[in-house]
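Could you join me in thinking about how sequence relates to backbone shape in a protein? Label the sequence line and the structure token line clearly, so we can match residues to local backbone shapes. Once you have written the record down, we can walk along the chain together.
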Amino acid sequence: MRRFILALALLAFTTPVSATNSKPELAKVLEDLLAWLPGEYTSIPQVFLERALGAPPDGEHEIYYRVFAEIDAPHLAEHVIYTQIRLDADDGTVFPGQQVVFLISIDEEKKSVSISGRRIKDGEKFTNAHLHPEMWPNIEPDPDFGGNCTFNWRRHGQQLRGLLGEHGECTMVSKNSGQQMTWDAEWILNPEQLWIYDNGYFSDGTLFVGREDRTHLRMSKAKRYECFTSLRFEDGTTQVINPFFMHDRGDIFTFETTEAEPRELHIEFLNSLWPSNSGRNYVDLLRLTLHDGEPGEFADEDVLGFAWAEPASNRVGFTTEWTSARCKVANPDDPRLKAAMMGE
């Protein structure tokens, strides 16, 4: 036993400090990155809490809906992730210039998993490229943008952390304007959330992109659900909508009733922390609400049906005297879901 302990002690003195973030460790970081990052994300749960509990100094964050999807594009790199941002919702306007491919590899010299983010050339031709494999062989980086700085990803406790350059900053000269700018960025990833801090400064220190309060945009991963609703009106007629598809991070389904005097109703679906001021009920809840108020803004008297469940239940529903609704996790291979995501 003494010889074994001595051998371990000698090993500790002879093993170089660089053993941390060794190739086997980085291979696991790469594995987790490729498993955790793909998916659909939105900042709606963060904005919901900011409106209920108070916003940071620069005000509430933007509402973005962002997709990350691994694609087969060996002409770019062995591991490639396509990403795009839509404004406000999953069917919102595509954010110009934010259709990007991540070229991913292990950098043994820097002891990190390296991501080179490259804007796609003629991005407008590749909207929703993650849903169209036929597009992938034609995706090319735009030579006029990017390629100056890489993200270096390493394990950070039970999460992954990506820093621009070695310490979170990278100074470069724009290929278009010739202006020097410094980017200060940190991304934090776990299986359910992606936190993004990304500020850009001109050489005089002026902030041109990002936030003075240096707070992260908190993106929550969304799940797709198959839903239905049934209504019975005072004249005895009924209306059934089955199926329709929603995500659980603040999606809104709006429809017009078929009763004699039609109304516009909304079903809202939100999985987020409950904004409890006392803190005693500050827990994640899956909530499904039918109401006739304004989308995203309704009072208690507007609610026509409501249910909540723990997110792990993967389903939620309610039944009242004249209406019912239910949502359950959708089968990702359901062709109806795929058609809905393509806007068909």
